[in-house]
């Protein structure tokens, strides 16, 4: 096995080591959050695009759960754009009943990580499903307690679809945690400062200054204060 450094390495939790496995198309990395050791695989060569990386925002969101001692016990949770599934898997390990979603081509990678990291006794609290924003969202319930998303605000063409999806999945008590890297040119600040606030209360709850990564805690405005939704 070969040990390699990876450019995504960041922060105290990011290790450790990355192994190129006997299969050249899978690489594994270990993390520790909230006392749980996670062994996350990424598939290459499967046309997974952005889903084939563990993005820094995912690690920042996991660190935020740890710092805030967030407990998902008894909570119905959905994660959008799960990628490798690291955030959703941690939410299951922290007690949640979690549906991890992404586009169809990323699902086998998430399923693999679910089977590696979630003990069979807790696996009934995890589900992996295709959800393409603005297309499949209506197949999902509207009463999630928590919605999670790390680095899903990065392509401005998708923002209306993402907004539509968040509006459908949430109700006023729903808590949405979005962790976003603010990149120049993709209008992610505009999404958080202009588009979202038309429908949601948005609170910046954590920031990693040197990486320009923000964690937002978001809840739906009451129907009377909300602008006309995009449904
Ligand atoms: C930058 S990656 C972040 C992955 C993961 N959340 C993380 O932080 O490591 C963006 C994710 O959003 C997913 N995605 C992009 N557009 C999407 C869409 N229209 N519907 C559903 N998922 C989408 C991608 O497949 C990818 O997994």
Structure description:
By secondary structure, this protein is α/β, with parallel strands linked by helices. The chain has one domain (49-220): Rossmann fold, CATH 3.40.50.150. The protein has five helices and eleven strands, in the order E-E-E-E-H-E-H-E-H-E-E-H-E-H-E-E. It has a seven-stranded mixed β-sheet with strand order 7-6-5-8-9-11-10, with helices on both faces. Strands 1-2-3-4 form a four-stranded antiparallel β-sheet. The longest helix is centred in the first third of the chain and has 12 residues, at 56-67. The protein is globular, with a radius of gyration of 17 Å. It starts with a strand and ends in an 11-residue tail after the last strand. It binds S-adenosylmethionine. S-adenosylmethionine is lined by residues 50-51, 54-55, 57-58, 81-84, 102-103, 106, 131-133, 150-152, 154, 158, 161.
Looking at this protein, list some descriptive labels:
globular; disordered N terminus; 22% helix; four-stranded antiparallel beta sheet; seven-stranded mixed beta sheet; 5 helices; 231 residues; binds S-adenosylmethionine; Rossmann fold; alpha/beta
């Amino acid at each position: 096995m070969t040990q390699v450094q990876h450019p995504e390495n960041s922060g105290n939790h990011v290790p450790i080591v990355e192994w190129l496995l006997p299969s050249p198309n899978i690489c594994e990395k270990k993390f520790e959050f909230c006392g749980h050791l996670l062994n996350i695989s990424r598939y290459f060569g499967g046309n997974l695009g952005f889903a084939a990386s563990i993005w820094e925002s995912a690690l920042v969101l996991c660190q935020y759960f740890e710092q805030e001692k967030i407990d998902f016990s008894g909570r119905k949770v959905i994660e959008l754009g799960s990628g490798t599934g690291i955030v959703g898997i941690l939410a299951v390990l922290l007690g949640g009943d979690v549906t991890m979603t992404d586009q169809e081509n990323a699902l086998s990678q998430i399923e693999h990580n679910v089977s590696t990291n979630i003990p069979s006794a807790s696996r009934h609290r995890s589900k992996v499903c295709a959800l393409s924003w603005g297309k499949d969202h209506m197949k999902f319930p509207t009463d999630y307690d928590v919605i999670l998303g790390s680095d899903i605000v990065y392509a401005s063409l998708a923002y209306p679809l993402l907004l539509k999806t968040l509006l459908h999945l949430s109700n006023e008590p729903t808590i949405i945690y979005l962790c976003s890297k603010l990149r120049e040119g993709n209008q992610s600040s505009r999404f958080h400062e202009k588009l979202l606030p038309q429908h949601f209360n948005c609170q910046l709850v954590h920031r990693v200054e040197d990486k320009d990564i923000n964690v937002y805690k978001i809840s739906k405005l009451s129907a009377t204060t909300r602008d006309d939704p995009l449904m």
